[in-house]
Amino acid sequence: MITEDSISDHPEKQSIPEEISTKNITEKPTQVLEENTVDLSEAEVATEKPGMTAEITSSETEAPSEKLEAEVLQEQPEHQADVDTQKSVEIPAEKVLSEIDPAKAEYGEPNGEAHHDLELEYTTNLTLPEILKEMENIVNKDDAGAHFRKFNHFKEQANHFIHDEIEDQKSEFVNAGNSEDDFNAHHPAQTKLSALIHLFREKNEEYSKKQEENHSKNLEDRQLIIEKLKNLYTNTAVGTNLFKAIRTIKEDWKNAGQVAKSEFKILNNNYFHHLNQFYEMLDMNKEYMEQEYAHNLEKRQHIIDRARVLEGEPAVQKALNELQYLHKLWKEEAEPVAEEFREKTWDEFKEISNRIHDRKGELSAQIDEEQALNLEKKTKIIEEIKKICTPEKEANHNYWQNSIKKIEALRTEFLKLGSVPRKVSNQNWNDFKQNLRNFNTKKNEFYKGLKNSQQTNLDQKLKLIATAKDNMLSEDWEIIVPLFKKLQDEWKTVGHVPRSMTNKVWDDFREACNTFFNNYREKNNAVNDNWKENYKNKKQLLDELKEITDEEGSVEKIEHIKTNWNNIGKVPREKLAINTEFNKTLREKLKLNKISEYSLKEEGLTENQLTDKARKIKNQIGDLEAEIVKMENNLGFFKNSNRDNPLLKDTFDRIEGKKSELESLKQTLHTILSGEN
């Protein structure tokens, strides 16, 4: 039962005051929506007809339904007789009904629609992990069973989330080209939800058992209180302070715990029957009644003062909830009062209550404004999701990965926003879910296509690897070096391959390339060493040639040196000047020894024709002929060595180029030897 103690911040530590205080009313908690709400239905409206009883317990206190009938608050509860020093006065219920606007008599909560919207706003502000956390908090409470409805509400919300997410997974699974029958519905949060439900069921059973025990004990306590009340007016001891005694009995009754509903009605009727009998006994006790009236009048005044404060309360819902609580106090703890103050105080309290209820329009306007703002924000989120689904440029992997993060952030923001107007709520939610599905469909289509293109890329790279492995041990540097460079260039142009194969194909290709180029460097270094040795030998021959004079036998020495010189191979590029120096020295020594024209022709070396240019061209012709023969021989190592093979196209072009160059050099040499310009 909600009592005056509920006004304080710490009701469990608050003593029962003799008189209601302004301080206590001011400190009333705001959490009355869940704990202190009283359903003012017609069955619980107090009337002034003697002999009637009202069943008002905290166990029967529920939020009003969505379609509350007009409720009427009477001035005097049905359980109290109108006691006066002269006679009992009955105020007809019709009179009270005519004095209160039924549309303003729904004290406590806004109309059903507003309540539904507030509840919707509360639940939609929570994500699935937050809902599970709330359920876990309830399960961890000692009185978990007392939150049965709240737990069931969260359970329904969690099931709703899980169902939607499983449907999304199923949609993605089917869009990826899989069969719907192969889909295995599983959600990671389902296990935790099932565990919480199981734990709550156990705690609820335990709570119900304790409640039954408490109800049984409370029944005994209340029966003892009734017995004390009965003895108070049937067997009063001499010197008993009736005022103090009845006050104690009423406080004890108010503070007694709940009993089973099946027991409460009879128990409650018995209590108020004996209470009425007590008041009838005191009907002639004017002094006591004056004290009782004064005490109740003071309580009424405190309630009225607090109601005036609520008129300026900025939170309309809070004001309505607390006003409902004040009406409960009025019925239970501010009756009766003297005749001259009865209607006056009630009219004053009623007028203040009606003014507070006039502010329901403000609450509805606030809710409408908030819902309109939420609708605007949610619509923008939906439009942004649509925009992400239709990129201006061709989307790549990075775009979709970044979009996944953006969509998740937008989804979280959408779910945290409050409710929207009911008439567009379903459409707004369906638009949101549909656009999420559209995003997932397009994302899956992209990755399905990417998977196919990656397989094509893998096939291309495997062909490049096969070619590289076939030629990695070849020493035909003129052909294979350009070939490997071409393979590397083509590798760079091929796109991504499946992630599982990325490292493997790259390692295989790199190994083949490294093997070839390592061999190439080793061989090249050996050739360079040979060329250096050739330079040393030619330098020695050049020095010998310079020492020759015109003495007898010099011609033979010159011929010997010339023959040895021609038998020595190439020298490093930076040492090519030694060839020019040798030719110049050779001509000088021939002139010195006056070798005849005929003798030179016998050797194919006339003085005029033996120029640096002619000798260089001869060397180039010999090199080109050797290269062409070698390249044509190497083509025979390929299975497909025709011009249609794209890997050999460059080689054929180079062979043709070298042949053209060879013909040109031969023509030039012929011109020099024939004495033409």
From TrEMBL:
Annotated InterPro entries: DUF349
The keyword Hydrolase is annotated on this UniProt entry: no
This protein's name: DUF349 domain-containing protein
Lineage: Bacteria, Pseudomonadati, Bacteroidota, Flavobacteriia, Flavobacteriales
SUPFAM superfamilies noted in UniProt: PspA lactotransferrin-binding region
Keyword flag Coiled coil: yes
One Pfam family recorded for the sequence: DUF349
Positions of region (Disordered): 1-69
Coiled coil: 607-668
Organism superkingdom: Bacteria
Listed Basic and acidic residues bias regions: 7-16
Keywords: Coiled coil
